[in-house]
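Hello again,

I reread your note about wanting to compare the complex against the isolated chains. To keep things tidy I'm splitting this into two emails, and this first one only covers the full assembly. Below are the input lines as submitted, including protein chains and any nucleic acid or small-molecule components. They are followed by the predicted structure of everything together. The single-chain runs will come separately.
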Amino acid sequence: MNNPELWRDRYRLMVLMRRFEEACLTGVASREIHGELHTAIGQEAIAAALAENIREGDALASTHRNHLHAIAKGIPLYPLMAEIFEKETGLCGGFGGHMHLFDKERRFSTTGIVGASLPVALGHAYAAKLRGDDTVAFAVIGDGSVNAGGFHETMNMASVLGLALVVVIENNEWAISVPFSAASSTAKLAERAVAYAIPGERVDGLDVDATSQAIGRAVAHARSTGPALVEAMCYRFRGHYEGDLDLYRSQSEKTDRTTTKDPVVLLRAQLRDGGMLDEATLERLESQVSAEIDAVLAQVRADKQPDRSRAHDHVFASGLKGAVA
Amino acid sequence: MTMTANPTNETSAPRNINISQAVAEGLRLAMEADDRVVVIGEDVATQGGVFGSTRGLLKAFGPERVLDTPISEMAFTGMAVGLAMDGYRPVIEIMFVDFIGVCLEQVYNAVAKIPYMSGGKVDMPVVIKTAGGSIGAAAQHSQTLWGLFGHLPGLRVVAPSNPYDSKGMMAAAVASDDPVVFIEHKGLLLERAQDFEFGANVPREAYDVPLDKAAVVRPGSDLTLVTLSGSVRHALTAADAAILSGVDVEVIDLRSIVPIDWETIGTSLAKTRALLVVDEDYLGYGLSGELITGAIERFGLGSLDYVGRHGNPGIPVPAALSLEREIVPGTESILNAIVRAGAER
Ligand SMILES: Cc1ncc(C[n+]2csc(CCOP(=O)(O)OP(=O)(O)O)c2C)c(N)n1
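Full-complex prediction:
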C-alpha cells in the first residue's frame, strides 16, 4: 500500500459508485424510474478493479446489473444517470432505460437477457483479432449467467479461436431467489475454466486490490494468449431489484453480511487504520463525491422525458418508420 | 354497462386474491388431481415465482414436482419434451415472455411439432407459462409476443384478462393434451380480483374455463371491439366513454389467440358490421391482421362496413413512459380509435 494516490482514487471511485446508485434509488421512490432497477450495491470493489484494468479502447458487454460497469468504462455520469431516469438527455435519449445502456464510442453495451452479453463480447474479441489490434473484450456477468447455454458456447469458441476475452463473474451468491450452491454443478465457477483449457481464478471481490490484480492477470493472458476467467466473490446487498421483498434468503445472514462485509466500509477502515488517509481527509473526500452526485441528480431531475412524438424514431437506421405505422 | 364473463358466480362475494394467486390455485388443484403434473422454472419453488403465481406449490408438492432451476431455459424447455414423452405433464415457466428467444428452438421445433411429426403418436401436454405485457420495463421486458407463437403451428396460445379466467384457463391448459402457451399479463398479475369489473369471482373449487371460447364482456350494437389480456380493461373503460360520442361498443375478450373463436366474433359482427381490433402486441404480421383477414374470408367483404386496428405499430417498447404511451394502447388511445371507427362508418 505504498501508493497513496492509487488508494485514494480507488476509495473515491467506490464511494462515487455507491452514491450514484443511492441516487438512482431515489428515482424509484419518486417513480421517475420504471421497471426493475438492479443495483450493485456491495459489488463496488469489483467494478473499481475493473476500471483499473480496462483501457479506453477495450470493449465491455454487461448485464442487467450494469450501472457500475458503465462507470468503470468511463461513461460520463450525467448522461448515464439521465438514461437511467429515462430522460431525453440520457445516453440513449430515454429509449433504452436503466437495463439497456449503450455507448458505441466507448464500446459499451448491456442486455437484460441473462447470458446474452457473453456472445456479444465474443464478437468484440473477434473484431480485435480481425483488426489486428490489442484491445480486450470484457464480459461481466453474474453467477447465474454461467448456467445459460451461451456461456458454454462463448467460452469454447473464444478458446478455440484464442480470442482476447476476459470474463469477470460477479458471484454474489444469488440468482434472484436461487442460491449459487443450488444452481452450479461445480463448487467454484473458476474451475469451469478447465473445460475450456483457459486460466480461471477465484478472488475475494470485496478486496479491490486482490480483484484488480486477478483481472490484471486475466487481461495480460488475454492480450498474449486467449480468454481468461475471473470469479469475484461478493454478496448482493439489496433485493434482486428494487421492490423485491427478498424473503427467500436469511435476513440475519443479510444483515450480517451487509454490516460486516461492505467493501466500501472495509476499505475505509483499512485506509484509516493503516494510516493511509486520516478521518478528515476521508470525510472531505466523501462529501465532495456526495456533492458531485447531488449536482448530477439535480440536473437529471430537471430534464424532460423525450417527447412522445419521437417514439417512432430509431426503429430503422434508414429512418424507415415502424412496420405498419 | 358491463357484463360479467361468468354470471353464475355473481352471487358469491369476491375473494381478496390477486390474479397470480388465482393461477397458483389453478395449478395446485391440477397437481392434486394428477400427480403427473410437474412445475419447472426459475424461482418457481422457494420464491413461488417472481409474481407469486406458483406460490405454495413447493410446500404442497415438494422440490421434485416443483423444481427451481438454474437459468437454463434451453435445458428445462427441452426437459419438458422428454418428460412429456415419458408421460408427465410439465408446466414450465419462462419468467418473462421476452426471454423465450433463448429456448425458442425447443418450443417450435420440438414442443409444437412432435405431435405432428410422430404421426399423432406422441403428445406434448406441455404448458409454457409466461408473462407478457408492456409495463414500462423497456424493449426487452415489455413485449407480449402472442403473435409470434400464433404463427408457429402446433401451439395453442391463450392470454386471460381476469382472475376467474386465469384460474380456469390454467386448469384447462394443464388438462389439455395439446401444448399451450399461457401468457399472463405482467401488469395484471398483482391486481386484486375485487378490482375487476368482470371475472372478479374466483371460486375455491376446481373449474375449467374452455381454452377456445371468447367472451362478450360488454354487449353493444355499433362496433365489435376484439381485444384480449391487459387491454380488455382499457377497452371497457373506453367503451363506456364512447357512449358520449354515440358509439355503442361490443367488447369481446378473445382469451384464445390459437384457435380464434370465430363463432362469437361472427355473431357479433352480424349485429355491428364493424370490427376494431385492439392489440398490445406488434401489429405487423400478427393477431390483428389475422382477425381482420379471417373475418373477411369467413363472413365476406360485403358483411363489414368497417375494419380497423389499433396496437403497437411495430416499435420496440421504449423505456421512457412518455414514449411508451405513444405506442401502447391505453384507454385514451382506444377511445380515439373507437371514435375514428364511429366516424368512418
Ligand atoms: C434468459 C433469461 N432468463 C431469465 C431472466 C430473468 N432474470 C433476470 S436477472 C436473473 C438472475 C441473474 O442472476 P445472476 O446472473 O447471478 O446475476 P445477479 O442478478 O445476481 O447480478 C434472472 C433469472 C432473464 N433476464 N433472462
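For quick reference: Residues 230 and 324 of chain B are 15 Å apart (CA to CA).

B.
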